[in-house]
Amino acid sequence: MKPFIKQSLIVVCLFFFAFQASAQATKYKGMLQMSNYNGLEAYVVVSLIDAKGNAEKTLYMMGPDEKWYNGFKDWFAKLSKKKEKLNAITGASVAGGDRSTFTFTIDEAKINKGYKIRFESSVEDQKNYISDLEIPFTTEAVTKKTDGTGYIRYVKLSKVQ
Q: What is the pTM of this model?
């Protein structure tokens, strides 16, 4: 093989593997415990928030009926315009006192870069909590139990191997 072609192939392969390593997606499993509140089942949206506080991506949606998504004022204003496909990342809404498990995938290159994982909760005819719970996306904080401030009692995430 000619040296130029051989070198070109090596460069292309190195670039491909470097790109794959930098865009490594990691799966997380979460357990959400709701507080004991009175009312209908809560809808919860899990979003990736960048270092400037902007919603970047929807990671998971607890609540199957799209007609109620506009109750999430912050999420709806910022992410619904992106026309994200939520079919594969939706689950059931969660009643007061109940637990729910869920999984989502996130680009590991964003860890320790100022990102947060935000849980916004909403119950029909009650208050909406835009930042019911926020977990800093850092190696230290992401797998710690984090307490909520509204309908969510706490969330615990773990990396899926």
A: 0.81
